Each structure stands twice: as structure tokens, then as C-alpha cells.
Amino acid sequence: MSDRVRAHVFVSGTVQGVHYRANTRDAAREASVDGWVKNLDDGRVEAVFEGAEDDVEQLVEWCHTGSPAAEVESVEADYGEPEDESEFGIR
């Protein structure tokens, strides 16, 4: 699976309490991307996406809008080697 990439993403803004994690999970599953998403104590959302490069890029771009009720201020993404994530879940 050498064609897989990994993006570690941090999303800032009004992204907690607006179904951001559930919408991220649904978007990732629809794109066949593995990984996870969780809320951080500082109000940001953290996510990891692993999959085909185009699909992962699509999810990173999706994060700039996120759920309909979200107000995203910034998205930071760092790329690295895949760590064999399987499925997509909320932590």
C-alpha cells in the first residue's frame, strides 16, 4: 500500500459542539479514508487521514468548511508516512 499518504490535521475555530467530528467521520468513510477525529481541550479538532493521495487531499480541503454549523478559522496539515490506520472513528 505504498500509494497511501497520511495527513495529521488541526482545525481551529467554532468546531466543537457543531457536529464537526460526526461530519468528518461521514465524509472520510464516503471517501474511503481511514483514520480518526477527536476534540482537543483547547477547542480545536484533531484528525488523521490515511488513504489514496487524492482522497486525503479532498478531506483536508473539506476541513476548511466542515460541518454546516462550523466556523473554521484555520486548518493546519502535516504529512507523513502512513501508520496503517484502519477504518475511521471518533475518539
UniProtKB/TrEMBL annotation:
Name of the top EC class for this enzyme: hydrolase
Transmembrane region(s): none
One matching Pfam family: Acylphosphatase
KW Signal (keyword) present: no
All residue ranges annotated as the Acylphosphatase-like domain in the record: 6-91
Keyword Isomerase: no
Stretch list, region Disordered: 70-91
GO terms of molecular function: acylphosphatase activity
Catalytic residue list: R21, N39
Enzymatic reactions: an acyl phosphate + H2O = a carboxylate + phosphate + H(+)
Classification via InterPro entries: Acylphosphatase, Acylphosphatase-like_dom, Acylphosphatase-like_dom_sf, Acylphosphatase_CS
Bias-annotated ranges (Acidic residues): 73-91
Enzyme Commission (EC) number: 3.6.1.7
Family designation: Belongs to the acylphosphatase family.
The protein, known as: acylphosphatase
Native source organism of the sequence: Halococcus hamelinensis 100A6
